[in-house]
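Section 5: illustrative case.
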């Protein structure tokens, strides 16, 4: 396997690797960037819609990161973490290990764009409603700037995540009471939450009367 090789990569092997990266990138329509790190050779291939580029990287620039430690230490060998860049919803990381030694041979990093998120917002921004997304460890992946959770304290975020094991619950933020509804993904246990002001619900009920 190419990722396990310690000897120089042959031209035909590199062509195959580039084609595989391209195929994966275009297998989905919501990828902003796909980075593939070959740990033994300290080469990184970065694929975007503009093309692919190859560059050297320092091993410590990867191994000293939170995402590397996370996706090489858990039983699924992956991590889903927040993205601090425009138009990206979150980052997905996955490590490829040598089975015998459990040593990481390669690391894939996927930047998922926010196109799906923007589609959700079209149906969930009426009446002061806002959305947020957590990963399976209770880390806030995304909350739009200007919404109450964007600058919420860790204590508030931890409390909200602990309550989100329920289908719905009430929560007060900045003096506003919200009805919170929750949905958890089957594959990666990410939790999507909708915060709808109770005052908006009361207003709609009053209009029906």
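Designed sequence:
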């Amino acid at each position: 396997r190419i990722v396990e090789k310690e000897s120089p990569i042959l031209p035909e092997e590199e062509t195959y690797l580039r084609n595989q990266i391209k195929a994966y990138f275009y297998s989905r329509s919501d990828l902003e960037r796909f980075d593939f790190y070959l740990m033994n050779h300290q080469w990184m291939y970065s694929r975007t819609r503009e093309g692919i580029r190859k560059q050297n990287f320092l091993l410590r620039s990867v191994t000293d990161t939170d995402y590397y430690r996370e996706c090489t230490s858990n039983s699924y060998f992956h991590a889903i973490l927040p993205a601090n860049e425009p138009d990206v919803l979150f980052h997905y990381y996955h490590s490829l290990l040598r089975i015998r030694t459990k040593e990481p041979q390669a690391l894939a990093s996927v930047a998922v764009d926010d196109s799906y998120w923007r589609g959700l917002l079209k149906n969930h921004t009426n009446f002061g409603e806002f959305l947020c997304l957590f990963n399976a460890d209770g880390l806030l992946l995304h909350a739009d700037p200007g919404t109450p959770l964007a600058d919420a304290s860790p204590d508030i975020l931890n409390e909200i995540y602990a309550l989100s094991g329920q289908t719905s619950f009430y929560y007060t933020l900045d003096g506003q009471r919200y009805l919170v509804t929750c949905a958890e993904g089957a594959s990666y246990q990410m939790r999507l939450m909708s915060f709808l002001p109770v005052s908006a619900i009361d207003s709609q009920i009053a209009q029906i009367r």
